[in-house]
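Annex B. Sample input.
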Amino acid sequence: MTSPSAPYDLLYSETEEELRSAVRSLLADRCDAASILARAETGHPYDPEVWRTLAAGIGAAGLLVPEKLGGQGAGHREAAVVLEELGRAVAPVPFLTSAVLATEILLGCEPSTPEVAALLAETASGRQVCVPALPLTLAPGAPLPTGVRDSGSGALTGAVTSVADAVAADVLLVLADTGLYAVPAAGAALTERVPLDLTRPLATVTLDRAAGTRLADPAVARAAVAGALLTGAGLLASEQLGLAQWCLAETVAHVRTRHQFNRPVGSFQALKHRLARLWLDVASARAAARAAADALATGAPDAPLTIAVAQAYCSGVAVRAAEECVQLHGGIGMTWEHPAHLYLKRAKADSLALGTAGHHRGLVADFAELPAP
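Annex B, continued. Sample output.
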């Protein structure tokens, strides 16, 4: 196994902190828990204005796109900071699917071709939401789906289940037997599913001789999708980190003010031990998530191993943090009005997205050449 050329930089730069401040201010002002809950009840969680401001105003949609192609020319560390803040707010925006997964797929094709360059520019500017028509649970290293066929001249037929953010998409990236295609969302039939996480809707995408523009041949398309899944898994750890950080902070604030027997419940030793352990878990998750983001940004040779470690660890920490948040809030944590359930549902859904913790542990074992049990 090859070692990285330099130690990972786990600290946040001044630029990253400025980006965090801008995103957090936007979400605090226009994406608070009450408004998220209200939109979730309608079945349409997205606020187009929030996405426009985040994507175009702040420039988050084009962070991974080079400036010459119409993007911000930033990198994976900056995208990770945005995902931290989105996880902290359980914000219902298609950043992971459009600004990360779809963008990485397009960059993995030939960006200089007119069709790819035009779609990249539209996605980076926030004028279009581009979403890969892939199951949200599809993991790095897993076999890619083969359910869509080209009936001839780019007329695509087939179905893909559990596509995240498809209902918000303007363009779908479809992996077919003859390559990668860009299909207008209006040309596909979407069947919305009832997701556990109401802030990240899922749908089944059905194509019936849908017209698509071919972007890459099968070999290039599959390599691009495989690379995007790896990047998505690495950056998803930062979303899980942000979620866990919010749950820890809110729980500590609650047990400081909630009184029983004329004293704060946070003064009870049993709760101190639980929260201290959770703090250690979150601190370790921060190191793992930052290592994954830095490995992607620097192209570290052991990036796949670092990403697998981050996902295997951060996935469980996010779920535990959300469970502790619900439980230590007592009866309040069980109510619909309190946002704790949104965080638990997002944590549970994220634990399946882009590979389960068990899948990533298997990858760690493979990379370390450990025999399976």
